[in-house]
Fold:
Amino acid sequence: MENSDNKLVTLLSSIDLYELEITKGKLESEGIQCFITGKADTIGFADGYRLQIASSDQLKAKDILNKIN
Structure:
């Protein structure tokens, strides 16, 4: 992802890793490559997790999420 059009952007953030894994699976089934980054501390606070995608996929991903929500 070296091209500036493919810079990673955070689509969602949450302390619930399971929620992000489900969303990641849905986006990947639609052809959008996703990455989950970050880490919550032992009691679920701190920065949590981030679901990241290429900036060029941002509009498509938001459209997909709007349809399932």
Q: What stands out?
A: The longest helix spans residues 17-29. Helices lie at 17-29, 58-68. The domain at 4-68 is CATH 3.30.70.1530 (Alpha-Beta Plaits). The chain has a mean pLDDT of 87.
